[in-house]
Write a structure and sequence with these properties.
The protein is α/β, with parallel strands linked by helices. A hairpin with a 5-residue loop joins strand 3 and strand 4.
Length: about 325
């Protein structure tokens, strides 16, 4: 069976958002012996210029009636695209008829503007997360995920995460073996779990609070210890109340949340890259209780540690 996959493009789209997944589907079709029919689409068809100033030939939106999967790409032009009435009407028309409705990076803005993400768990590029949350209510944004699958809707993070999304879709279509062979052909990692962090928690927090950089580094090196507000404030020679207020503004999160993020990131690395028992990881990263660690993982990644380990294997 040939599956038709449409890529929705617009001026100033991100080239890799389309080219990366398209290459994955092309190779998977060869490996499986069941080709995908790939269609690049745009409002009027013809050449569409990407943000890299490389043009891609497209078909008009009304060139085909049915698609198995539609993928709306991201890019600098998403702000204009999300207000295009023709594009919104096209996506709304296919919303209930397409088996899978997907986005890469800021393509999530276009789907959200068309009303297709309401009540869903979604992700997008971490740099766009705050803007997305402010613009769209009733959508559960998880900004730290590589990709998220919620019913017929699949959303992914920035740029190269579109390849992770495509490999997950290929797995659904043809199974693990075909997806794994596709990843090998592309010389990419097979496969980053959907819940894997988009970026380093330490780097993200250090970026806004140089005053507390040394403390954050110390925390990461002492995760197994009791890291209370009193302990952290004492290292900064500040009162707990003053420390809590002074920390949150530049770092962007509370001290307790910062400690949890660093513990979750350290635990995630050990879960994915070691055979250490889950209980031991909970102890060495300062959670101590495996259930407490599980709840933190679900909050951050949307998956418990055991599921992330299974996916990584």
């Amino acid at each position: 069976m040939t599956r038709s996959i449409g890529f929705v493009l617009y001026p100033d789209f991100q080239l890799l958002d389309a080219a990366g997944p398209a290459t994955a589907f092309e190779l998977a079709g060869r490996i499986s012996g069941q080709d995908y029919a790939l269609r690049m689409l745009s409002r009027h068809g013809g050449l569409v210029l990407s943000s890299a100033k490389i043009a891609v030939q497209t078909l008009p939106l009304d060139a085909a009636d049915m698609f198995d999967t539609l993928i709306t790409v991201g890019g600098e032009g998403h702000g204009t695209a999300m207000h295009c009435a023709d594009l919104r009407a096209f996506l709304q028309h296919h919303g209930g008829r397409t088996r899978r409705m997907c986005s890469v990076c800021s393509g999530a803005f276009v789907l959200a503007a068309a009303g297709l993400l309401q009540g869903r768990r979604v992700t997008t590029h971490w740099q766009q997360a705050q803007k997305f949350s402010q613009m769209f209510t009733g959508i559960r944004l998880e900004p730290d995920a590589i990709f998220i699958h919620d019913g017929p809707v699949w959303t992914s993070a920035g740029i190269s995460a579109g390849i992770d999304l495509a490999l997950a879709l290929i797995t659904q279509d043809h199974g693990e073996d075909v997806a794994r062979q596709t990843a090998r052909q592309m010389v990419v990692f097979y496969r980053r779990p959907g819940g894997q962090s988009q970026f380093s928690a330490l780097l993200d927090m250090e970026g806004g609070g140089a005053r507390f950089d040394a403390l954050l580094g110390w925390i990461r090196g002492h995760l197994s210890q009791r890291l209370t507000i009193e302990v952290l404030a004492g290292r900064m020679a500040m009162s707990p109340r003053h420390f809590s207020r002074a920390f949150q503004a530049p770092v962007g999160t509370s001290p307790a949340k910062a400690v949890e993020r660093l513990r979750v990131e350290a635990a995630h690395e050990r879960i994915v890259h070691s055979t250490m028992p889950i209980e031991a990881i909970a102890i060495t990263t300062g959670f101590h209780d495996p259930e407490r660690m599980r709840r933190a993982f679900v909050r951050v990644f949307g998956l418990p540690p055991q599921a992330i380990r299974r996916a990584a294997r």
